[in-house]
Amino acid sequence: MQKFFNLTIDEKKRFGQQTGDVEGYGQAFVVSDDQKLDWADMFYMVTLPTHLRKPHLLPKLPVSFRETLEEYSVELRNLAVKVLNKMAKALGMKLEDMTMLFEEGMQSVRMNYYPPCPQPELVTGLYSHSDAVGLTILLQVNEVEGLQIKKNGAWVPVAPLPNAFVVNIGDILEIVTNGIYKSIEHRAIVNMHTERLSIATFFLPRLDGDMGPAPSLISPTTPATFRRIDMVDYLRKLFSRELDGKSFVDAMRI
Predict the structure, then answer these.
(1) What is the pLDDT of residue 38?
(2) Residue 3, Cβ neighbours under 10 Å: how many?
(3) Domain Fe2OG dioxygenase: where (predicted)?
(4) Chain Cα centroid distance, residue 148
C-alpha cells in the first residue's frame, strides 16, 4: 500500500476510476461538483467472488502486491464468517438466516491514504457515516491515530494497536438483526505532520437476492422495523448519495 500511494500521479492514474464506476484509484461518494471532498485518496476494488473482479485492477498490480492482497482477502473472508456465525448464535438467530445472506457474498477492499495537512482542523479525512455493508474489518496500517466513533453524541478516538483489527457492524447487519445490533457512526481525521494509511475490508450479501430482517428474529411481539430490498437496488441507492451520518439506514426504516 505504501509503495502504491507513493507512485507518481500519472502511475496511479493507470488504475483510475472509469466513468460511472467507483472501483479504482480516486474518491468515493462524489455526487456533485459543489461538495467538499475528503482529504484522502483511496484505491477501491471488489476482491471476491473472483468473477466480479475488474481485469484492469487487481491483475495489473505488481506481483508482490497482488499476491499479498489475494492472501489477505481470503484470510479476512474466513475471519468474517466466524464473526457472523458467532453473532447469529448470540442472538438466537437461525444460522441459515445468516449463511443464506453472506454465503457467496461480495467482498471488497478500500485502501485509504490520508496525507498530512498543515491545517487539519479545516478538513475531514472521511466524513461521518455508518458503513452501508454487513461487516467491516479495518486495519490501521501504519498505526497513526485518526479513526473516531460516535458514542453518546461525542466523538471518541480509537487508538490503533499493532496487528489489531477493528470490527465494525454496518447498516446491513442492523437491518438483518432488526435493529438489535446498531451500525456505528464513524469518521477519520487527519494529522498535521504524518500520513495515515488504513485498509477496510467490506462484506456484503450475495448480489442476486434481497435483504431484510432475518425471519427467525421476527414475531408478533417483534415486528420488522426495516423493509426488504433487492441488493442491486440497495447498492445503486448507496453510491448515488453523499456520506451523511446514518441517513442511509434510516431511510430503510418502515
Answers:
(1) 84
(2) 9
(3) 105-205
(4) 15
